[in-house]
Write a structure and sequence with these properties.
The chain is about 60% helix and about 10% strand. The protein has 19 helices and 13 strands. The chain has helices spanning about 10-20, 20-30, 35-65, 80-90, 110-125, 125-145, 150-160, 290-325, 335-365, 370-405, 415-420, 430-450, 460-465, 470-500, 500-505, 510-520, 520-545, 550-570, 575-590, and strands at about 70, 75, 165-170, 185-190, 190-200, 210-215, 225-230, 235, 250, 255-260, 270-280, 325, 330. β4 and β5 (about 190-200) form a beta hairpin. α6 (about 125-145) runs antiparallel to α8 (about 290-325) and α10 (about 370-405) packs across α17. It is globular and about 70 Å long. The structure holds flavin-adenine dinucleotide (FAD). Flavin-adenine dinucleotide binds near residues 167, 169 and 428.
Length: about 600
């Protein structure tokens, strides 16, 4: 039976030689903790997790996918094999791995749990998302924003896998535009009541849901929102908590349906209807956006790791198949195009893992009150982990499918499932376009604060300071120069349109002025992500010299991606703004 930790050399090297346990252990266990002793315990946890996930969870994955979500007598539930996975994880203490010890968890740092998330996603992407969104995410939110009574009530049961929750922000008319939500929370007779509808809620068929709602009447956009916990089952007096099957239980909100979908099929994606639903505030009224942003930032890294696990699964399957499948008298991996695809996939997976382990360590530092520059570095990496982890996972699965030829589309092999599962990652927790807008807005903010950075290494301090020797170092520097050259071109256009006052920070640019930046946000993000991946591998190669060839490949690729994007951006807008003007004219003509 494969052990997804011990039998993955890159993962083991990442744990043994890359992760900075000397910094992470004192944060998590206190400054007097014995580092080697703690690390050896964590390594043992990962070995046990790797064995269970690589054998039991992986074995059930195809069944989880085939059975999908169970819909019986108007009830939505998890399939038996997915329930078995969660039970098994709970028994090994893996559900509550990141929960604080005083609430029944193991209190492990995010850097350790990141390994488990990756292995789970490799085995079964539906189980990974169920574990993350039904247990870890609500527990983290309740621990952070809840009071003692809420923590006592929910956390130990979540850690044991006895109850499950969900997090609901999306609505039929409010997807990427969360501020457009219309679910309301009203205060009456000393209680809060929710009214509205939430859409696409993962694990929404559980025992409670954390809901983002408009709590201050008349407020607009991201102001005036609140987070609320609504229990699924209440008794006639409105008191929460009777067991779901008890005669006294009545539904506090309705699980209207679970979507039929081709990706993460085992995970129930539910529509929820709230009509006078009793709920209790989680944190301060009016600060809902702050709470949900923290959740989203953490779960964006989680989705990047999900992409990593799926890509690892596709890579392992393709490597194995390409060694066995013989065409034209040789294993197909000896045909140059296939050999190149395999190398590209390997570079992507190792590069993404390098980015993830760096982001996870920053996340641990931020959770323990790091300084502003660490917080900013995490903020810079988060959309890139999500973007690269999603888009490159899709690309890696697409390559694996191609390597399998006709067998790639046959359900007897797992690569078609990996392909389908990968396709959710660029969509949820903020689409790839939304990640790109976030990354580029922050880049612009730094740039407008310090335009002179364009005369040197560019607005990203981390990238500007990155220095490596040899050809790989030169490739990385060339990639960075292409990016800076592109930003300089876009900024010159901005200054020409808006005047130098804009660059001196005397006013914020208008939407029209920044439109060329926004049009190219995904190209800039792609370049940024590739440069950061190469940089992260370069840092690793300093400590693990065997990683030098990987670094060299990632740096070369970063250079080529940066040059392609620089060319595409430099060649202009391709008529897109003229087309938008036409759409706008059509829209106003339809109104009159
Ligand atoms: C399987 C699944 C599980 C989910 N789980 C949850 C969950 O647990 N909780 C929850 O609250 N939500 C959940 N979601 C919702 C998910 O986060 C949203 O689907 C996602 O945010 C996109 O919103 P939308 O589907 O309304 O698309 P839209 O926002 O309508 O976007 C449609 C397209 O337009 C693009 N777009 C939108 N605005 C812009 C812009 N300004 N610039 C450029 N492009 C833009 C998008 O990138 C996308 O390509 C889930 C969704 C799915 C499919």
């Amino acid at each position: 039976m494969p052990n997804y930790f011990l039998e993955n050399p890159d993962l083991v090297t990442t744990f043994d030689r890359v992760a900075r346990w000397d910094q992470i252990v004192p944060l998590s266990e206190g400054k007097d903790a014995d580092v080697p002793d703690t690390v050896s315990t964590w390594r043992e946890v990962l070995s046990v997790a790797g064995e269970y996930i690589g054998s039991e969870v992986a074995k059930r994955a195809r069944q989880v996918d085939e059975l999908g979500v169970i819909r019986e007598n108007g009830k939505v539930s998890l399939s038996e094999p997915l329930q078995a996975n969660i039970r098994g994880l709970a028994e090994l203490g893996l559900v509550g791995l990141s929960f604080p010890k005083e609430y029944g968890g193991s209190g492990l740092p995010f850097t350790v749990t990141a390994f488990v998330i990756e292995m789970l996603a490799r085995a079964c992407a539906s189980t990974m998302i169920q574990n993350g969104i039904a247990y870890t995410a609500p527990a983290a939110m309740i621990y952070r924003d809840g009071d003692d009574e809420q923590r006592e009530r929910y956390l130990p049961k979540l850690a044991r896998g006895e109850i499950s929750g969900a997090v609901a922000m999306t609505e039929p008319e409010a997807g990427s535009d969360v501020g457009n939500l219309s679910t309301t929370a009203t205060h009456r007779d000393g209680c809060w009541f929710l009214d509205g509808r939430k859409q696409f809620i993962s694990a929404g068929n559980g025992d409670f849901v954390i809901v983002l709602a408009r709590a201050i009447p008349g407020s607009k956009g991201l102001e005036g929102l609140g987070l609320f916990v609504a229990d699924r089952w209440i008794d006639d007096s409105g008191a929460p908590g009777p067991a779901r099957e008890s005669a006294a239980a009545r539904e506090n909100y309705q699980v209207e349906r679970a979507e039929h979908k081709f990706t993460i099929r085992g995970s129930p994606t539910c529509s929820l209807v709230f009509e006078g639903t009793r709920a209790v505030p989680l944190g301060k009224i009016g600060e809902g956006w702050r709470g949900i942003t923290r959740f989203m930032n953490e779960s964006r890294i989680g989705v990047g790791i999900q992409g990593l696990g799926i890509a690892q699964a596709a890579l392992a399957a393709a490597q194995d198949y390409a060694a066995r499948r013989v065409q034209m008298d040789r294993p197909i991996r000896e045909h140059p195009m296939i050999a190149e695809m395999l190398m590209e996939m390997e570079t992507t997976v190792a590069g993404l893992r390098a980015l993830v382990v760096e982001a996870a360590a920053l996340q641990d530092a931020v959770m323990h009150g790091a300084d502003e520059s660490t917080t900013w570095r995490l903020r810079e990496l988060t959309p890139l982990v999500k973007w690269y982890g999603s888009e490159e996972a899709v690309h890696t699965c697409r390559r694996a499918l191609q390597i399998f030829g006709g067998y790639g589309v046959v359900t007897e092999y797992d690569v078609e499932r990996h392909m389908r599962d990968a396709l959710i990652t660029p969509i949820y927790e903020g689409t790839s376009q939304i990640q790109s807008l976030m990354a580029v807005r922050d880049l612009m903010r730094s740039l407008l604060r310090k335009p002179q950075s364009l005369l040197s290494g560019g607005p990203s301090v981390t990238l500007a300071n990155a220095k490596f020797d040899g050809e790989a170092g030169r490739d990385l520097a060339a990639a960075r120069s292409s990016l800076v050259w592109t930003l300089r071109g876009l900024t010159t256009r901005l200054a020409r349109k808006g005047g130098v006052g804009l660059l001196r920070g005397r006013r914020q640019p208008s939407d029209e002025e920044i439109a060329p930046f926004m049009l190219n946000a995904e190209r800039i993000t792609e370049t940024l992500a590739h440069i950061h991946v190469a940089r992260a591998l370069g840092e690793q190669a300093k400590r693990v010299p065997e990683r030098t060839p990987l670094f060299a490949r990632a740096a070369r690729r970063a250079k080529l991606v940066a040059q392609r994007n620089a060319k595409e951006i430099g060649d202009g807008d391709g008529g897109v703004f003229a087309r938008i003007a036409e759409y706008e004219r059509d829209r106003s003509a339809a109104r009159t």
